[in-house]
Write a structure and sequence with these properties.
The complex is a heterodimer of chains A (113) and B (114). Chain A has 113 residues and is mainly beta. Chain A contains no helices and eleven strands. In chain A, 0% of the residues lie in helices and 55% in strands. In chain A, the strands form two sheets. In chain A, strands 2, 4, 5, 6, 9, 10 and 11 form a seven-stranded mixed sheet that branches. In chain A, strands 1-3-8-7 form a four-stranded antiparallel sheet, with no helix packed on it. The radius of gyration of chain A is 13 Å and the shape is globular. Chain B is mainly β. Chain B contains no helices and twelve strands. In chain B, strands 2, 5, 6, 10, 11 and 12 form a six-stranded mixed sheet that branches. Chain B starts with a strand and ends with a strand. The chains are: A mainly beta (113), B mainly beta (114). At the A-B interface, strand 5 of A face strand 6 and strand 11 of B.
């Protein structure tokens, strides 16, 4: 398996623009996680899906952030409108069992100017 | 408050030297414990995990970690460091009952000198 695939790897956008980050989990995994990594706050869980259903979105910063998982092989994290403070590396991870190993993608480095 | 603490932000060791990275947690009940490694520009990779049983856990790449309940610690060790071990290391916990929510420490950056 190719692992968790995230796209794009890098995204540079201007404040106010819409940004969509994409994730393809490992085939057969039923849990998917979105994380954000910043120098100040470290790694934070944004949202967790199980069987394509959002279970916990308490980490989503505000209404500008939304995440979807229309099927078992695809998820998106959208920021609209984007702000400079959203600049971070966003990781997607998937797992077959919620207490098992989480496999991380390589991340998307987002820069909002 | 519940927390995961990695006291050392940055550690430098010489190649071939031993390594110990510290991790302390503050939870009511012993959480599930993990160590992840992040190489530059990459995602995180699991090194090892502790749920119960033997308090000395073996992981990949020659790493091991010891759970000490009395000290609320889960320190990562390696007897002889290789240059390829240079990376950032994260201790993480899942609170029992939560079953999924990984809470990460702030990480320890390891530099290996030749």
């Amino acid at each position: 398996d190719a692992g968790v695939i995230q796209s794009p790897r890098h995204e540079v956008t201007e404040m106010g623009q819409e940004v969509t980050l994409r994730c393809k989990p490992i085939s057969g995994h039923n849990s998917l996680f979105w994380y954000r990594q910043t120098m100040m706050r470290g790694l934070e869980l944004l949202i967790y899906f199980n069987n394509n259903v959002p279970i916990d979105d308490s980490g989503m910063p505000e209404d500008r952030f939304s995440a979807k998982m229309p099927n078992a092989s695809f998820s998106t994290l959208k920021i609209q409108p984007s702000e400079p403070r959203d600049s971070a590396v966003y990781f997607c991870a998937s797992t077959e069992d919620t207490l098992d190993i989480q496999y991380f993608g390589a991340g998307t480095r987002l820069s909002v100017l | 408050a519940q927390s995961v603490t990695q006291p050392d932000i940055h550690i430098t060791v010489s190649e071939g030297a031993s390594l110990e990275l510290r991790c302390n947690y503050s939870y009511g009940a012993t959480p599930y414990l993990f160590w992840y490694v992040q190489s530059p520009g990459q995602g995180l990779q699991l090194l090892l995990k502790y749920f119960s049983g033997d308090t000395l856990v073996q992981g990949i790449k020659g790493f091991e970690a010891e759970f000490k309940r009395s000290q609320s610690s889960f320190n990562l060790r390696k007897p002889s460091v290789h240059w390829s071990d240079a990376a950032e290391y994260f201790c993480a916990v899942v609170e029992r009952g939560s079953n999924y929510k990984l809470t990460f420490g702030k990480g320890t950056l390891l530099t290996v000198n030749p």
